[in-house]
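Module 6 notes. Inverse folding takes a fixed backbone as the condition and produces residue identities as the prediction. Think of it as a translation problem where the source language is geometry and the target language is the twenty amino acids. Below is one complete input and output pair. Work through it position by position during the lab.
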């Protein structure tokens, strides 16, 4: 397998693995715009040269769009290998490249969000454990922070207090989201319209800066849905999924 690093120079011509379409598609354009603004913060997007979901995205933890204290670490936003790419060792390749790059840059180690059991759009805990990662912190909603230190004396990363106890002081459904996930550009407006049509109290909070993300009331900022103040899920919703959730 050959891999290529997406940069400002080749961003427009390269496909984005989690949104395979043309640049005019709102999902592709929103993701590429988000990436373009992150490269100066040290973000790395390494992907297969073949079209499909096979990539890793990581960034220095100080610049991560998550409320964590992990100075000196590299934060893995996403490691996604799916479909026909699974079972060929590509996850090992991508993680290995991240480890080598992070060591070369003098990082203390790696960290990433996960959970005791696999959740949508989060890392697989079995894979992380196999690769030597361990849990270093956990929020009340079961979202965990895992880390792989490069030295035995490296101080473990931690969630900020705002993320350790996910809660909002607001009735109805409240969604916190970023443009890091391309699916949000398409489906958040659909859920907003669905809620409006069915008289469901709903508010979407678009996190548009690193500062907002690092002080959000949730460890997952990419997509975090609350109801009457309590955290519900990080799984992206379309209209049918949202109405099913509301009817439960």
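Target side of the pair, the amino acids:
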């Amino acid at each position: 397998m050959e891999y290529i690093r997406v940069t400002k120079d080749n961003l427009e011509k390269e496909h984005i693995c989690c949104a395979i379409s043309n640049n005019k598609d709102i999902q592709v354009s929103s993701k590429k715009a988000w990436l373009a603004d992150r490269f100066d913060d040290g973000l790395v997007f390494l992907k297969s040269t073949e079209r499909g979901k096979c990539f890793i995205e990581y960034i220095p933890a100080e610049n991560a769009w998550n409320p964590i204290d992990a100075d000196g670490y590299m934060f893995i936003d996403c490691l996604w290998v799916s479909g026909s790419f699974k079972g060929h060792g590509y996850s090992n390749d991508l993680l290995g490249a991240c480890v080598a790059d992070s060591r070369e840059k003098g990082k203390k180690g790696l960290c990433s969000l996960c959970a005791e059991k696999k959740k949508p759009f989060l890392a697989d805990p079995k894979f992380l454990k196999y690769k030597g990662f361990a849990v270093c912190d956990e929020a009340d909603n079961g979202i965990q922070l895992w880390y792989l230190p490069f030295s035995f004396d490296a101080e473990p990363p931690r969630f900020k207090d705002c993320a350790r106890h996910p809660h909002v002081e607001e009735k109805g459904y409240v969604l916190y989201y970023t443009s890091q996930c391309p699916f949000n550009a398409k489906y958040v407006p659909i859920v907003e319209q669905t809620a409006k049509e069915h008289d469901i109290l709903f508010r979407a909070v678009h996190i548009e800066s690193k500062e907002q993300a690092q002080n959000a009331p949730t460890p997952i900022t990419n997509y975090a849905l609350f109801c009457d103040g309590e955290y519900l899920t990080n799984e992206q919703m379309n209209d049918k999924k949202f109405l099913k959730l509301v009817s439960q």
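Reference fact for the lab report: The radius of gyration is 18 Å.
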